[in-house]
Amino acid sequence: MSSYSDDTSKPQIQPTIENLSQAIFIVNRHAKTAPNPKFLYKLKFSALHKLIREGKAKKIGLHFSNNPKYSQQQSDVLIQCGKYTFHLPPSKSDFEELPHLGKLDQNVRNPKATLSLNQAKKILLTYTGLSEVEQNKVPTKPTRKKYNKPVFKRLGESYY
Fold first, then answer.
1. Vertex 38: Cα angle to 137 and 32 (nearest 5)
2. Which of 35, 36, 71, 101 is deepest in the core (most CB within 10 A)?
3. What's the rounded Cα separation, in Å, for the pair 46 and 60?
4. Is the separation of the CB atoms in 23 and 123 below 8 Å?
5. What is the DSSP string of the chain?
6. How many Å apart are CA 27 and CA 13, to the nearest integer?
7. Which of 76, 71, 73 lies closest to 90, judged by CA?
8. Is residue 61 within 8 Å of 152, Cβ to Cβ?
9. Phi, psi (5° rounding) for residue 32?
10. CA distances (Å), 157 to each of 70, 80, 148, 150, in order?
11. Cα 1 to chain center, whole Å?
């Protein structure tokens, strides 16, 4: 009996530091142009924090953000994972513990990655334990009350 399914025909990619950093790079690149990037950024955030906790990635310092909110100066944490570097929003302790590196160097680039978005998501989902089904639920909008026209009483009539 030889029955082949899609999962068994392709070898599973092991979550090494190089594969994880490539997967984060791919997810981050796609999140920048995705119509609903919230889940992709959450996946990146969770994976990087788990890598930092395990000692497989480290925080290097702070950079001024290229696209600050509300046109105010803002900093991001520079994280190195394998041959790749990423930015995350800083915590309060990051400002006390990490050196500020100034402006981002535009000449420094991450290496090319050869993963597809689906492969990258699979790697990061198995590594972080997140579930895409839970995250993609669209919150239902609260139903608006039907508009009732105001009722005007004649002068002297009671409202009760």
1. 140
2. 101
3. 18
4. yes
5. -----HHHHSPPPP--HHHHHHHHHHHHHHHTT-SS-HHHHHHHHHHHHHHHHTTSSEEEEEEE-SS-GGG---EEEEEEETTEEEEEPPPHHHHHHS-B--S--TT--PPP----HHHHHHHHHHHH---HHHHTPPPPPPPPPPP-PPPPPPTT----
6. 16
7. 76
8. no
9. -65, -25
10. 53, 76, 20, 15
11. 43
As given in the structure block, the two tokens for residue 123 are 């790697």
Q: Which structure tokens are listed for 22?
A: 């490539």
